[in-house]
Design goal:
- With about 200 residues, this protein is mostly helical.
- It has 2 domains: about 90 residues, Alpha-helical ferredoxin (Fumarate Reductase Iron-sulfur Protein, Chain B, domain 2), CATH 1.10.1060; about 80 residues, no CATH class.
- Helices cover about 55% and strands about 0% of the residues.
- It has 12 helices and no strands.
- The structure holds iron/sulfur cluster (2 copies).
- The site of one iron/sulfur cluster (SF4) has 14 residues, from helix 2 and helix 3.
Length: about 200
């Protein structure tokens, strides 16, 4: 290709082949990932990404590129980065093409989890614990129970001293009963069914 009007400056054709298009198709067919095809790889999302400040390997633009190429191996190598999105939505607000970037990043991560390319990360484990705590406690969250569950799985460190301090404060204020056995939210049975159906839908997609 001639670029400057002379006949000796050429750009070498950079066509890439060997794509596994099933990766792209699968991600694009999910509710979260269906705007992935709009991406034109400008990099605006990555340049302002909050997570990137903490992990230089976190790059929504690159994740989309790898998904487009069906490069499972590179996605696998990014195991410790893929899950780190904070859901701050900066990328989505800035994308000039209307890609729902935050959702697409989650769709790519979900794909990697479902395909067994990456192991379950601390963020996903915590989400599961959070949901379990809400479902087990009639729609309410108990920070103490959630904290103990997270500590049990090694996600936070809770020393004996911490537990004694928190428990004695709860005993003194009389909040211990509420925290250990939270009252169900109003219409919990109806809400529970809605949540259960939503979870089934998510699994289906
Ligand atoms: S800002 Fe939008 S178009 Fe640009 S790379 Fe990111 S997702 Fe793609
Ligand atoms: S939503 Fe996630 S991917 Fe987007 S800017 Fe925030 S941390 Fe980065």
């Amino acid at each position: 290709m001639e670029v400057d009007g002379t006949w000796n400056a050429f750009i070498i054709d950079r066509t890439q082949t060997g794509f596994d298009t099933s990766v792209w198709d699968k991600i694009a067919s999910t509710v979260e990932g269906n705007t992935i095809s709009l991406c034109w790889q400008c990099g605006t999302c990555t340049s302002g990404c909050t997570a990137r400040e903490y992990d230089p390997n976190f790059s929504p633009r690159r994740f989309i590129d790898l998904a487009r190429k069906g490069d499972k191996q590179s996605l696998q190598e990014l195991e410790s980065s893929l899950w780190r999105c904070f859901s701050c939505q900066k990328c989505t607000h800035r994308c000039p093409k209307g890609v729902l970037v935050e959702e697409v990043v989650h769709a790519i991560h979900n794909y990697a989890l479902e395909e067994g390319l990456v192991r379950k990360d601390p963020g996903t484990k915590f989400d599961e614990l959070f949901l379990k705590a809400v479902m087990d406690n009639g729609g309410r969250i108990s920070e103490l129970l959630l904290g103990s569950m997270a500590a049990k799985y090694g996600m936070v460190s809770l020393s004996l001293k911490d537990l004694i301090n928190v428990s004695s404060a709860l005993l003194k204020t009389g909040l211990i009963k509420t925290v250990m056995n939270p009252e169900k939210v109003r219409n919990w049975e109806k809400i529970r069914k809605v949540l259960e159906n939503a979870m089934k839908e998510e699994i289906k997609l």
